[in-house]
Write a structure and sequence with these properties.
The structure holds two protein chains of two kinds. Helix content of chain A is 33%, strand content 31%. By secondary structure, chain A is α/β, with parallel strands linked by helices. Chain B is mostly helical. In chain B, strands 1-2 form a two-stranded antiparallel sheet. The two termini of chain B are 29 Å apart. Classes of the chains: A alpha/beta, B mainly alpha.
């Protein structure tokens, strides 16, 4: 059986009496590109950083490559690259100096790769970091996490400050890096289009819990919108399983359900004496519906 | 007016540590005054020192953070959109300085009749008020401008023009001023008001004020790393590329390639403070004694104040440096491969190095002053010992503060301050004093060991979700316009 790159069991985190994460269990096999989606303050950063061992879970446990996150040995840390949400660069250095600094901390450093990416992403390495724009700082932070060629790359909102062209180019490069080897990439975002473009799996974090984890395609197939047109007034309770949201008005109703199976359509048609139109949703619509 | 008062209250209670220091300072003052009224014989032993300690804590809680706090609340560019926001902030800071000077003067007036006449001498209440006002304003403006390029010039104008000018140039100006009917304190007041007006003009007309030492958004923590870094970096770091792993960790933690420029950069302000102190003391002593008959222990008093001031400066800077180092250790958790215990050792070593780097210029000056100036024998050689223990304790207070300002952190900080004050107050006393200096030295050593153990224990479970480095928006990283 393949070893999970990332795993958690009943993970919970409370900071100053505020529950940030609650009962999260997950397993992530290698070679996946996972998008972590959630509203602001949903707990994405806390989840990623707890998985990385920056913080001890209040309840449960988490592991990377089978080792407890909180006490990760150096050999495991060498296999991980991390881009924090807020860059932690040394403002007084130039971009090139920051790269040299980080290279000195690692045993292995792929200089040609970084030089190539510096050119491709137009990172001004001669300029002092304090003079860089947020987007340039973000690119530099990402380069720092790529140089030692980690097997697991965790990026916390890596493209939030980039313009649309840079973001597309950046994500393309990330995909290439991921596909070149069996790397696992875990990135959080609230830009749904980015996630649809790159990820094959998705974790949706809602109020500190994992509202969905699985394949992106499975999520899209599973969550649908039903437009119900009754011949007579519809009952108050439609009695449809796994309703996410429901808006009913007389003989018409719009219902979003999760865990949808096409065989359910006939049952609803017969039971409610209505026409049922099944509508697929975009990821953005699914995300909005899940947060209603 | 209500808005001004509200900002004034905010300026005095911005940080948790400020509120705690205020509370403890006011408690000490109240207890000291009650002692003095209840038993005049205890005034000199307990009441007086308690009031003075309380006033020192008040000064640390209000006057020292006032400058950076004012700058911090003035930094957001959105403030420019609020009508009269800067005017109100400025008035609030002036109100705080005035209120503190009045409070200090009031307490000393209450205390004076109960102390021997040689303690305050012939200092009149109005003179005392003006001196207190000037001292607090100098501190406020100095710390406001600490990171700005105008710091040295402004400080020179205020301190030399305001304090030294009055005392040293008085004989030259006497004839002219006598004609106008002004007293020295009135002139000092005039100069103080003039300096404040210059500052006010600059403050109100500055297009942008950069964020400096405090940042409200992350809980109002002291962040001197950028100040140190920007003040010493220049272009010296440009050419260095090859780095060992240990050096890379040091740069990541400290934010500068070499600590030597920091020491060099600190030497000039230290020299300035030493000269300023000397001039001020000469001025005060000459004002109280006939010309040419300075008291024999004058230079001893000077050395005492020099050591005391430098100890506060070294202690605060070291604590702040250790605090910053602890926060910057976050990324090294993954990049260096070190365990939490190993990272504590690395950070501790670097904090000691900072103590050495910050303390070295001040130490050199103190030793030079010690060798060059005549000083009494006896307990005076204990000054360096008295200076060391609080600085070491301050180092560990900074290093252990990885969970925000919890009750135990406040207690540790207050104890360190009291230890420093106590050590210095006990040092020049004769051996039969109630608390001998060795008591403070032993207490300091024990406190340092205890704080180190506490810091080490906390680091075993350090939570870098809470202990994060400060973030500077790139647009705010320019010096004051």
């Amino acid at each position: 059986m393949t070893e999970s790159v990332v795993s958690a069991r009943h993970l919970g985190k409370t900071i100053q009496d505020r529950v940030i994460l609650h009962d999260i269990s997950l397993d992530l096999p290698p070679g996946n590109v996972v998008g972590v989606l959630g509203k602001n303050g949903a707990g994405k950063t806390t989840l990623l950083e707890t998985l990385l061992g920056f913080s001890r879970p209040t309840t449960g446990s988490s592991a990377l490559f089978g080792e407890d996150s909180f006490t990760l040995p150096a050999a495991i840390k060498r296999r991980i690259g991390f881009v924090p949400q807020q860059d932690e660069l040394v403002s007084t250095l130039t971009g090139g100096q920051q790269l040299s600094l980080t290279a000195a901390l690692h045993r292995r450093w792929n200089r040609p790769l970084i030089a190539g990416l510096c050119a491709a992403w137009e990172v001004p390495t001669a300029r002092r970091i304090q003079a860089l724009s947020p987007g340039e700082r973000q690119k530099l932070s990402t380069l720092l996490a790529l140089g030692h060629e980690p097997e697991l790359l965790i990026l916390d909102e890596p493209a939030s400050s980039l313009d649309p062209i840079a973001r597309r180019q950046f994500l393309q490069q990330i995909l290439e890096i991921a596909s070149a080897q069996t790397r696992t990439i875990l990135f959080s975002t609230h830009i749904v289009s980015d996630l649809e473009r790159v990820a094959n799996r998705i974790w949706i974090v809602r109020d500190g819990t994992l509202a969905w984890q699985g394949d992106l395609d499975a999520l899209k197939e599973s969550v649908v919108r039903l437009n119900i047109h009754g011949r007579t007034a519809l009952p108050e309770h439609l009695d449809i399983p796994d309703i996410v949201s429901c808006r009913a008005d007389g003989a018409r109703a719009t219902v979003v359900v999760s865990g949808w199976d096409d065989s359910q359509a006939r049952d609803i048609t017969q039971r409610l004496d209505a026409d049922v139109e099944v509508e697929s949703l975009s990821l953005e619509d699914i995300f909005v519906e899940l947060h209603r | 007016m209500k808005g001004v008062v509200r900002i004034a209250v905010l300026l005095c209670s911005y940080l948790a540590i400020q509120r705690w220091l205020l509370l403890i300072g006011l408690g000490l003052i109240a207890a000291g005054q009650i002692f003095c009224f209840a038993d005049p014989r205890a005034a000199i032993q307990f009441g007086g020192p308690a009031v003075l300690m309380g006033l020192a804590l008040l000064f640390m809680a209000v006057a020292l953070p006032l400058g950076p706090t004012l700058r911090s609340i003035s930094a957001p560019r959105t403030l420019l959109l609020i009508p009269d926001a800067r005017v109100r902030s400025l008035l609030a800071s002036a109100l705080v300085v005035l209120a503190l000077a009045a409070f200090v003067t009031g307490n000393i007036i209450l205390l004076t009749p109960r102390l021997p006449s040689n303690v305050w001498g012939r200092m009149r209440p109005d003179t005392l008020f003006v001196w207190a006002l000037d001292a607090e304003m100098v501190a406020t403006l100095y710390f406001f401008c600490l990171t700005g390029r105008s710091a040295g010039g402004l400080l020179a104008v205020i301190a030399i023009g305001g304090v030294v000018g009055v005392e040293r140039l008085w004989p030259l100006l006497k004839a002219h001023i006598a004609a106008s009917g002004m007293s020295p304190s009135e002139l000092l007041l005039l100069l103080t008001a003039g300096a404040w007006s210059v500052f006010a003009f600059w403050y109100l007309s500055a297009r942008s004020i950069s964020l400096t030492s405090w940042d409200r958004r992350t809980g109002g923590r002291l962040t001197p790393d950028r100040d140190l870094a920007t003040s010493v970096s220049g272009s010296k770091v440009e050419t260095r590329i090859g780095l060992s792993r240990a050096a890379a960790m040091r740069v990541q933690l400290l934010g500068v390639y070499s600590t030597a420029p920091i020491a060099k950069a600190l030497l000039v302000p230290c020299l300035f403070v030493a000269v300023l102190f000397f001039a001020v003391l000469v001025g005060i002593v000459e004002g109280r004694h006939p010309a040419g008959r300075l008291p024999a222990n004058f230079t001893g008093v000077y050395l005492f104040f020099l050591f005391f001031t430098f100890t506060i400066a070294v202690g605060l800077s070291t604590a702040a440096a250790a605090w910053v180092i602890a926060r910057r250790s976050r990324l090294l958790w993954l990049q260096s491969g070190c365990t939490r215990n190993e990272l504590f050792d690395v950070c501790e070593r670097l904090a000691w190095r900072c103590l050495g780097v910050i303390g070295a210029p001040m130490g050199v000056l103190c030793v030079a002053a010690w060798i060059c100036l005549p000083h009494p024998a006896g307990d005076w050689p204990r000054l360096p010992v008295a200076a060391l223990a609080p600085c070491v304790c301050a180092l560990y207070v900074g290093l252990m503060n990885v969970q925000g300002w919890r009750f135990i952190d406040v207690v540790a900080a207050v104890l360190t301050i009291l230890l420093g004050l106590g050590s210095f107050m006990a040092t020049p006393r004769p051996p039969h004093a109630v608390l001998a200096p060795w008591v403070f030295a032993a207490a300091g050593a024990l406190a340092a060991i205890g704080l180190r153990a506490l810091a080490q224990r906390r680091w075993r479970r350090i939570d870098w979700l809470v202990c994060k480095p400060q973030r500077y928006p790139s647009g705010l990283l320019r010096p004051v316009a």
